[in-house]
Amino acid sequence: MRYLRYPYEALTDQTDYLQITIKSHSGTSSLVENSQFGTAGPPVTVSGNPSQGGVAKINDIIILPMPSNISDNNAVGYGEDSLDILGAAAGNIAKGLMQAGGKEFGKQGTGGAAGAIDLAFKDALDPAGGAKGLTKAALDAFTRSLASSAAAVIGANVTANQLLTRSTGQILNPNMELLFTGPTLRTFQFQFKFTPRDQNESRQVKSIIRSFKTHMAPRIDAAENAFLKTPNVFELRYRKGTTDHPFLNRFKQCALTNMSVNYTGEGVYATYSDATPVSMVMTLDFKELVPIYAHDYADVKSANELLTTKGVGY
After folding, report:
1. What is the Cα gyration radius of the chain?
2. What pLDDT, on a 0 to 100 scale, did the predictor assign at position 142?
3. Given Cys at both, which of 174, 190, 232, 273 links 215, Cβ 3.0 to 4.6 Å?
4. Is 115:104 a contact under the CB 8 Å cutoff?
5. Could you report the per-residue pLDDT of 201-235, keeping only the tens digit for each?
6. Which of helix, strand or coil describes residue 150?
7. Are 249 and 72 in contact (CB under 8 A)?
8. Are 244 and 45 in contact (CB under 8 A)?
9. How far is 232 from 254, CA to CA, in rounded Å?
10. Whole-angstrom Cα distance, residue 94 to residue 225?
11. 211: which residues sit within 8 A by CB, 6+ positions away?
12. Before 7, cis peptide (omega within 30)?
């Protein structure tokens, strides 16, 4: 394990910096290993990172100055969805068929289940049965839907809504809602400017750039070339002296998805006598491996059961 830092100077209890710990990818998440699909989220460690099937080896610890573009962006996925009365009725009919078949399957086997499904289907189509909840207008719309399907057979380009609008001036209420579709993964971009002041800092900068390039690259399985191993993971932490920063956001384990280095940071090529560029700009793009969940903000409770807030959390 190596400790690399820029600028190469002593750190004090008041020094703010970004610490990046590079760890080996330790294998499949225990969520997959234990087949615990359908749970609220992957098992997590105390630090909020996904628990892994093994102990991760620390490769390098890199200390960099606080970037000038510190920000975080939390987002979740939402999408518009529509469900008119015909779709709702069809869903209820399908639900009734499945429930009737499943109940009879447990009692009598496939024969009884088939009979129950047939009976439920007939009841669903009977105006006195499954269709009794539909209004006359909805039944008319259903009829026009069948008519548009028949017209499509002979090449007529007409929809049920078009027929309904032309004849009644109405459309089916789409009952539009904004529905939750899932979490998102956060991304972070940092930019660092290197201007080595002596040979020691020059070596540190060269090692830092090489370390990021090495650990973000996939590895070839030494035993056989048929497989590639996942690149190493990166743990980012804003620090103040020897403790975590008391205000700024925290990170979950990240992948380094993109890295670029501009070796002419001042817009002109210039080097020292040992060929080290005078100014360089390194840009890093990180993406978290797992989403943020509500339980990630459950701060530790003190003895009097009051929440002890530790910064802004994730």
Report:
1. 31
2. 61
3. 232
4. yes
5. 999 999 999 999 999 999 887 777 788 889 999 99
6. helix
7. yes
8. no
9. 9
10. 50
11. 2, 4, 22, 59, 60, 62
12. yes
